[in-house]
Amino acid sequence: MKNRVTGVLLVLGGVLTTVSFIVAFFVAGVPDFGTVTVANEVQTERSLIEIAAEGFKYGRPDWGQKIFYFHVPVALSSFLVFIFTAYYGARFLLSKNREFDTKARIATEVTLVFVVLTMITGVLWTKAAWDVWWEWEPRLTTYFIMTLLVIAYFVLRNSIDDEERRATYAAAFGILAFVDAPISFAITRLIPSTHPVIERGGLETPMLLSFLCGLFGMLMIGYAVYQVRVREEMLKERLESLKASLEG
Amino acid sequence: MDPTLQEIYSLVLKQWPLVAGAYSILWVALIVYIGMIMARLGRLEKEIQVLSEAVERRG
Amino acid sequence: MAVTGGTSGRAMSWRQFRAILRKDIVMELRTKEMVTSMGLYALLTMVIYQVALSQSGTAFDPRLIAAGLLWLAFVFTSMLGLNRSLVHEKDQGCLEALLLSPVDRPVIFFAKATGNFIFLLIVEVLTIPVFGFLFLQGRGFGGQFWMIPAVLTAASLGIAGVGTLLATMSVNTTGKDFVLAVLFIPLMYPLLLAAVSATTAAVLGGPDAAAGFWAGMRMIGAYDAIMLLVAYGLYEFIIGA
Questions:
Q1: pTM, whole model, 2 decimals?
Q2: Option in A38, A113, A120 nearest B8 (CB)
Q3: How far is CA C235 from the centre of its chain?
Q4: Which of A153, A179, A180 is nearest to A167 (CA)?
Q5: Which of C166, C193, C230 is facing A179, going by the closest CB pair?
Q6: For A11-51, how does the pLDDT look when each residue is reduced to its tens digit (9 = 90+)?
Q7: Most exposed of A29, B24, C58, C129 (fewest Cβ within 10 Å)?
């Protein structure tokens, strides 16, 4: 039964993200990013902003904003999957049931994939919007820290041989990291610094639709991938026990 | 393209390879990742089927 | 809880805490190992700072990055100290002995964290005049002097508390100080950001100094409160494994 739900979610997630993609590129408008002053008036669907001192002011269309339709959903999904890491870590600490540790590990693995994708699309968006590949602004910095935290989780796991200890330590660090991520986000925003905070305004309807579709689609994909991986681990265990009983 | 239009759309001209790159990386990465998982899953299921039949024959 | 006769549970925990803390301090007083090694390490970092700043020219005001340099030194020194304090426990079998005795786990956490906190604070207090002597000749402090010890104390609390938990884990891995660094630095990042911000406000002074300082202190406080609580809650599970 669970397999069917997972399959449905995966397909639905794919459909939703595709819908988001289509709406984003073919229906939604392109917002402006700053203005540009030109010598002559031109025929374009861009509206004339004002007649400036030296020429004509038009809004500059920002095509790079399209990245945001996927970048933010992936980012949010990564954090939501990270919640599972902390949740199953806590449950493991309280029950010592190995299954929770496996689930926590898989959740972190999915988080890693999504976080890396967030970083890649984030870097590309920074280049598109600000013409630099990297900027120590709050969101990018926080995501960089999150990447380091997730990598640290796996470094920790790989450096311990004893199974129970590995699971306990990983669970504890997962919880610590999960608490640290929002603190990081808050503090990077509140520290007075010279870097600009990229604000996001409100969204018109087709943009909002695309964004929400993308968000829910990504969430479904994330959850479905997690479930599929959990199933894979359980099958692996069954395989091991079958092998053992054959040898016995 | 009319040079004035080019100036207005300057950002777009710079950005579209980045946008295309971002989306394609995302799609490719997700599809490859999910594909790999499904392939491993399929192999596991087949192996389990073979082994469980062997166990049944034994038992 | 141990059978204590007439003593209340609270008093017992306090006595245990004092006993463990005293052990660490007495050992340190006898060997002077922690403070000397951490202090020397900080001093050596200063030498590297000189190399780093050697090309910056006379017009460069090191007070702009003084806070950053100081906290950089403190972070790496504290990792050294944390690792050593826990390695000691493990090598001498102290930790196992402690676990066998009827001591509450949180007490161990507080005692060890306090010990680390004290050592870190000592090293920090010794390092700052040295740093001022080496790099800040001829430039005064812009802000008020009491701000600096305040930031040191507040941030070192967080470093010692979370660091003790992480070091307890990392000492049982096959990577030891490398694993400690990998775990420690990302978790400490927000605390360090706030600490450097507050310290810079204290060093540079100016009209916004008080506001910047208190903003930083509030964030350090928030970090300490949340993370120390979580660390305290997790310690029991860690030390049992």
A1: 0.86
A2: A38
A3: 17
A4: A153
A5: C230
A6: 888 888 888 787 777 776 777 777 777 777 766 666 666 66
A7: C58
